[in-house]
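Same chain as my last thread, 152 residues:
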Amino acid sequence: MDIKKKNKVAMLVILSLALAIAFAVLLYFTFRPEKCENFECFQQNMIECKPAFFINEETQAAWNYEIKGKKNGECEIEVTLLLAKEGELGIDRFEGNSMICFYPEGVSAYPDKDLALCHGRLKEDLQGIIIEKLHTYVLENLGEIKEGLGRI
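reply #2:
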């Protein structure tokens, strides 16, 4: 192969690599989720079901909400417990666990507030805490409950 042909092949390889890199960068910036700095931004993206994420810093815990997109006519959102802070909930053992929630299109809410719309490990963990708290409440107030039932 002469030098001119080798130069043409090298230029073609370099041009192909440059185009592939440019295409990859374009795809990355086109489809990466928007980082929301406030809940209003997240709400707007949730209403439109556009990929976005928001870290909700509450007093008791930090949650990551990530809109994945539309699935079967609903908006799919992944909720992850990032950090348990304070309180008596005992959720610190569930840090890093996630659940997937499905909301109707056009709706915006805190995704972790309606467990009926969610499924996954974190939902099971949170329901377990609710059941434990309810059990403790019933045992501590059995006398009052029995008295209330006797009046009926």
